[in-house]
């Protein structure tokens, strides 16, 4: 029996097990929306902006490991998704985005609400399709999910002309996908794995650098086994936070620009870096030529183009992190017999000394609210059992530094693209996946205003999602750079005069708004918010002068860090001016 | 160093733009590019001439391989291979140079494919050196127009470059 393209679309989503579809309607997708009206198994979640829909799908994907799915209309609906798609692309997040398109016979005519979205998103998708014939639709959808979720995951876009969703065809669901052009390598090369294992055995000062790939391949257990068995300290990139327990004694926290002193020191001193599922982003390496000068590098990644892209690599291993680590652990257990405790003693002692020398710190006695205190309190009250989204800026870095992520898929943060406005809709997406979990977006007063309209989505769906705004009345991270490198000339970063009343905004949407202005109010506000089963905005009026430390200035080596006390002087001067 | 890379791709719409987008997006240079169907009409072959150090060429071949529509990437420069390019040159020689133009064409085994009172259009096929050489000789005769196909390349059977 022939059914319409819109029906094929819905049947295909059911086959893929899609429950939630984040989206926004418009003329050319009405065929589908009309069917969704009565649909029970696939639920469309109406966001209030298409960017919100993509970030919500992305948050859902990061929290679950499944593909996030979105549906938008043509033209402006489609172009509004671009930031979200690029965000997912940079962080290797599986998404399948459906955009409506004008009827095939109008394509290329500059028709009303026509945009060449396939052309526009070509560089920021893993792959994309324009469906030209309804007969191809089911197969394309199957392929799209396969591409999005396998290998190095990423977003895939499918452009659906209106006549394709109204046209009819038999629904034939392909059970398998076999593409001659796309065959990711999962098994690592045995010889290389062996070599890496023996290098680990010989190394005196090894460090594991874990990235988002550990999380997407589900390799946390294997990573922990490797680290614990061989007593190697682990540092996690922003995308890798949660891949290894942040509260573990072998954890070094995050490396790089705002990394810990001890992570950066350990990398710079190390004689072997075991990089797994990470891609040596410039925020991690700092000045490349001065990065880990004494280290041999073992690099495990599923994407061959990530290897030797930024740094020289001694042992490249292309493969799925989980599979590679399983083999590596096996070799280490069976072939390499070492008394690791003895071998690592000196190195771990050195690391302990660095940790003692410069632990992560801030002024804990201040009466004014320090943002780090808020993050520590959130961690304490949730016992780490929450999903934390962040916006971008200082709020993101403080979260990464002071919340100890112990489990994978508990941090949702735009790492590669650094997209302000990501966190709130992402938290909404994650809350759909885990309705009973505490989901908190740590926000900045600037970022939250970029997708604040999603309050409506949270309220109408009765989501208990929480937003903790670290309100410094500034585009804080940019202000920090201006203070340190632009003679305190705060060009267009001061939001104070126009800072809206976030409590009232929350209330206007039908959510709850709470505010804390001094340290003693932080805990009560958090406790109250966590006890409310509705969306809550918490406005934490924090010390606007607070900066993110340590900091490696752009272009410097990662051990050339600035610390709080070095800049105290300039702060005194600031006070005098105020 | 200059490399000739042969890329087998699915003969689908948009593939060329994926390939050229990869080069422009990552700041790699395309010196020439030619595309055509293979015996299998579902497959096209692209011959791309690009330049870069070993590190860049490694990235280019890996990035090409990563594209979903790419079936196979071969860096011809690593193999023993034959390269050819066809050019057409419209020359407008002075009366006294006309014979010389024809003589050069003959020496280079070119053909005159069109002529008018004032011009000859010459077709030449050859490798880079040959084409550079004939251009050098014809330039003083007055080249009016010049088009080239871009290079194509094929590997030689049975011989491995050491
Ligand atoms: C969409 C977007 N625009 C601009 C930037 C550049 N940027 C990075 S951090 C930042 C300031 C963010 O301010 P806020 O959300 O208040 O966070 P804070 O740093 O104050 O915690 C800006 C403008 C960005 N990352 N994303
Ligand atoms: Mg701010």
**What gyration radius of chain B follows from the Cα positions, in whole Å?**
19 Å
Biggest sheet of chain B: strands, sense, closure? 5 strands, antiparallel
Q: What value does the average pLDDT of chain A take? A: 96
User: Helicity level of chain A, as a percent range?
Assistant: 25-40%
Please report the distance between the alpha carbons of the first and last residues of chain B: 18 Å
Query: Roughly what fraction of the amino acids of chain B lie in strands?
Result: 35-45%
Give the radius of gyration of chain A.
Answer: 24 Å
From the N-terminal CA to the C-terminal CA of chain A, the straight-line distance is: 75 Å
Number of strands of chain B: 9
Low-confidence regions of chain A: none
Shape call of chain B: elongated
Strand order across the largest sheet of chain A? 3-2-4-5-7-6
Number of H/I helices of chain A: 23
- According to DSSP, the number of beta strands of chain A is 19
Textual characterization of the structure:
The complex is a heterodimer of chains A (578) and B (162). Helix content of chain A is 38%, strand content 15%. By secondary structure, chain A is an alpha/beta fold. Chain B is α+β, with helices and mostly antiparallel strands. In chain B, the strands form two sheets. In chain B, strands 5, 6, 7, 8 and 9 form a five-stranded antiparallel sheet that branches. Chain B has a four-stranded antiparallel sheet with strand order 2-3-1-4, covered by helices on one side. Classes of the chains: A alpha/beta (578), B alpha+beta (162). At the A-B interface, loops of A face helix 1 and helix 2 of B. Bound molecules: thiamine diphosphate and magnesium ion (MG). Magnesium ion binds at residues 444-446, 472, 474-476 of chain A.
